[in-house]
Amino acid sequence: MKGIEDEFKRGRPDLIHLCILEATTIPLYKKNEIKIFIHTIDDKVIYLGENVNIPKSYHRFEGLVEKLFLEKTIKSNENILLEIKENSLSDLLDEINPSQVIGFSTQGKESSFENVASNLPENCCLVIGGFQKGHYSENVLNQMDQLVSIKDSSLEAHVVIGRILYEYEKTIFM
Amino acid sequence: MISLIIAESALELVPKKLRNHPSVVSHAKKLQKNHLKFYSTILGILLQ
Q1: Listed range (A110-114, A127-131, A132-136, B24-28) with the worst mean pLDDT
Q2: What digits encode the pLDDT tens for the residues A18-71?
Q3: Nearest-CA neighbor of A164 among A17, A19, A56?
Q4: Which of residues 123-142 of A touch B (CB under 8 A)?
Q5: Which pLDDT score, from 0 to 100, does residue A2 have?
Q6: H or E segment at A23?
Q7: CATH number at residue A54
């Protein structure tokens, strides 16, 4: 990857596979209490439909993403499961119009999963970096209303997703 | 209802600069894919 822009943030699509699995295999998603979007480093957005079962096998996931990039949508019985559009993060946020945008980063204000989850306003948007190293770009940082840090050391994206969504589930289901 | 955005994810086409790299070409051959057209989740495997 040496010599290409943002080399440390690229070349690990397997991390996104883990993140999507973490987010789509929980009751919150099964009960349609969360919408999931994947913003890519070259400003495309993948929209996940409702009750999508992402392949557990990475190789099958890879095939699915290749098909998505080629055909732009993945359908099943006329339902759109996955769709990719040329959208920046700013376009996406304009579209979903959240009440608040909360990003997770080691550079944010210290908090805990419990604290963040218990104070999430209705229709808010959580942003988690889908890259292995480094920080958000300025363009992404500028979209956030709040930046929180859960630990002084960095956690993997799928861990943050799993834990924050579990804490949020506890506030609405239990 | 809340939304979750996984931002700046590394799902992308093989960058033009790397499309003719010998490891990309040989890996594409192995998978019987056209290295000039195929899409790049493969990039991750190559460069880990």
Answers
A1: B24-28
A2: 999 999 999 999 999 999 999 998 899 999 999 999 999 988 888 888 889 888
A3: A19
A4: 123-132, 136-137, 140
A5: 63
A6: helix A13-24
A7: 3.40.1280.10
Q: In what order do the strands lie in the sheet with A34-40?
A: A73-76, A79-85, A45-48, A34-40, B2-9, A125-129, A101-110, A146-149
Structural domains in chain A (count): 1
Residue A2 falls within a domain, yes or no?
A: no
**Shortest Cα–Cα distance, A42 to chain B (Å):** 7
Chains A and B form CB pairs within 8 A to the count of 141
Domain of residue A14: give its range. 7-173
Q: Which residue ranges make up each domain of chain B?
A: 16-47
Nearest to A65 among B5, B11, B48 (CB): B11
